[in-house]
Write a structure and sequence with these properties.
There is one protein chain. The protein is an alpha/beta fold. It has two domains: 3-59 and 107-203, no CATH class; 209-332, Rossmann fold (3-Layer(aba) Sandwich), CATH 3.40.50.11810. It is 51% helix and 10% strand. The chain has 17 helices and seven strands. Strands 5-4-6-7 form a four-stranded parallel β-sheet, sandwiched between helices. Strands 1-2-3 form a three-stranded parallel β-sheet. Strand 6 (296-299), helix 16 (302-315) and strand 7 form a beta-alpha-beta unit. It is globular.
């Protein structure tokens, strides 16, 4: 029996996009890199900023998930939807892009966490580049889907490509990409690896040199992304940053935080396989977080941002959801 037939259509769709188009949506890589066009980032550098698929295609992901969830509640099931999406891809039709245009969504807010992160890193005096439309997909979803042969091929391509460019250090902002680049890829290819650090690590290491003040007094709560806390062990770094910002009071849930944080319902393709359950989990997590009395929910992962924003919208809660990079940029006034 072909093991690939056991993989849910939603995950097959994502995997196929990675192997054929080098990103999780199969979208235009030039369009994905458009957020950085005016930031004067070189493509040739020993240290690169790795943006990752999640932030670069945030609006497309949000549009596609909205479509999937609407269909999931209708008479048409999600499996049929994802098979249809795969068929549309073969025809060259961008389902998420079309839906986004129908919903009259702009892309002005796309990848704002990335722009904020770049401005913060520049303010810190770090010399780095960005590969733009030549940035590879890390391939992490292939590994988590169980397509290990495909992942190993992708890992080798990513590693060879980065090495050939003379890249020595990577500053990554997506938790999953960070773990894949720093751990999964070296393990898969028996390579010597690259120095990979997450954005929050870099900021945390430079806190003593920073004067951070948020524009207004506000209570914030922090949601730990699963991979950032459980895989990378980066629990204190984000909190250290938030506590260092004047006018911010960090308020937290009693015990569902850190390694014991409640999942937002996203990540690992879960939202594409069980969209309605994913939405329920996201809403429940938002309920936990707003019980702290916070005016802003802060997280540090594109999947968590999508899920938490969706939960806030469904609850009609008067609370913002922002990425940690956005908070730091605002506190730096950059």
């Amino acid at each position: 029996m072909d093991n690939k037939k056991l993989i849910p259509p939603g995950l097959t769709y994502i995997a196929g996009n990675i192997t054929s188009k080098d990103n999780i949506l199969g979208a235009s890589k030039k369009a994905g890199a458009r957020w950085a066009e005016d930031l004067s980032l070189s493509r040739e550098a020993e240290t690169i900023f790795f943006a990752g698929c999640g932030y670069q295609y945030s609006s497309d992901l949000e549009s596609l998930m909205s479509l999937i969830r609407q269909v999931d509640k209708s008479a048409i099931n999600t499996e049929l939807t994802m098979n249809l999406a795969s068929f549309q891809k073969k025809l060259g039709i961008d389902a998420a892009g079309i839906y986004r245009k129908i919903m009259s969504r702009g892309n002005e807010a796309d990848a704002q966490p990335l722009r904020s992160a770049v401005k913060v890193l520049k303010h810190l005096g770090i010399d780095f580049g960005y590969l733009a439309d030549e940035e590879p997909c890390c391939g992490g979803p292939l590994y988590y889907t169980g397509l290990h042969k495909e992942f190993t091929r992708q890992a080798q391509q990513v590693y060879n490509g980065l090495k050939s460019r003379g890249v020595k250090q990577i500053i990554s902002i997506i938790p999953s990409c960070t773990y894949t680049l720093g751990h999964l890829i070296p393990d898969a290819i028996n390579g010597d690896g690259l120095e990979v650090r997450h954005f929050c690590q870099v900021v945390s290491e430079n806190l003593s040199s920073l004067k951070l003040r948020f524009p207004r007094e506000v209570k914030v709560t922090y949601h730990d992304p699963c991979q950032l806390a459980r895989y990378l062990g980066l629990v204190e770094e984000p909190r250290r940053i938030l506590r260092a910002i004047k006018n911010i009071e960090l308020v937290e849930t009693d015990w569902t935080k850190g390694e014991w944080t409640t999942c937002c319902g996203g990540g690992g393709g879960f939202e594409a396989v069980f969209p309605e359950l994913s939405q329920i989990i996201g809403v429940n997590r938002v309920k936990e977080l707003i019980e702290t009395g916070a005016g802003i929910i802060v997280t540090h992962c594109p999947g968590c941002l999508l899920q938490l924003k969706s939960g806030v919208k469904e609850l009609k809660a008067d609370v913002e959801v922002l990425d940690l990079a956005q908070i730091v940029a605002m506190a730096m006034e950059v």
